[in-house]
User: Which sequence fits this backbone?
């Protein structure tokens, strides 16, 4: 069964860049979509963006100009970069795998989630 | 403010039936995009509960069911149990702004 593990700095200063990595184990990254989703403390879920292992990406329009998602299939990793962070970016950051049936993958159905990593933006 | 609207909270006694609504618009649920439901227990990651409007993944009890009509969807939980106390999120896709994934604001279910 696939497992996802997020990692990265737990504290980032305002105006700096948040960088996180999601390491995938127990399954192949080939022909799959991978999303980043975040959850501010005590609040709801917000989709950040997704990437296909081919490199195709799509981001949340509200964050698009600050978000870069990349994939390294040789290392089984998906990465997130969020620039110019503010306190509003403080959240639990999850990576999630999109569900696939054969070679067809959903653009918006997540069947596996990591446990999340908390990032606090503070000076 | 979330594109999909859910009630902030619902409650019910053990054994009762509760429903959670998810209201969208013509650019998401009403555009025939599927609705998913996720359950988030305290301190845990979200777990897929319902997919494709009405389908349950393996391991999800049949006490949970989903439905969809026009621009709205609903999650029903029958035979409420203490372990069902959690946050529930609906999720779909919106074709505005070149398309993006959208979540509801979440509903806190309290088992009385």
Assistant:
């Amino acid at each position: 069964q696939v497992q996802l593990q997020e990692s990265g700095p737990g504290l980032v200063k305002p105006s700096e860049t948040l960088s996180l990595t999601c390491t995938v184990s127990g399954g192949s990254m080939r022909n799959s979509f991978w999303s980043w989703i975040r959850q501010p403390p005590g609040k709801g879920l917000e989709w950040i963006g997704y990437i296909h292992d081919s490199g195709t990406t799509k981001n949340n329009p509200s964050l698009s100009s600050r978000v870069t998602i990349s994939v390294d299939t040789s290392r089984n990793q998906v990465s997130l970069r969020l620039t110019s962070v503010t306190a509003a970016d403080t959240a639990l950051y999850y990576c999630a795998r999109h569900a696939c049936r054969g070679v067809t993958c959903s653009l918006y159905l997540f069947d596996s989630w990591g446990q999340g990593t908390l990032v606090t933006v503070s000076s | 403010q979330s594109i999909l609207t859910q009630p902030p909270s619902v409650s019910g006694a053990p054994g009762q039936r509760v429903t959670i609504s998810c209201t969208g618009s013509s650019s998401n649920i009403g555009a025939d995009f599927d609705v998913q439901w996720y359950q988030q227990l305290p301190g845990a990651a979200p777990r897929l509960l319902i997919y494709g409007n009405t389908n349950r993944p393996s391991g999800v009890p049949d006490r949970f069911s989903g439905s969809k009509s026009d621009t709205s969807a609903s999650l029903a939980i029958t035979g409420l149990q203490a372990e069902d106390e959690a946050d529930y999120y609906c999720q779909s896709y919106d074709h505005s702004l070149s398309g993006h994934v959208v979540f509801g604001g979440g509903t806190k279910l309290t088992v009385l």
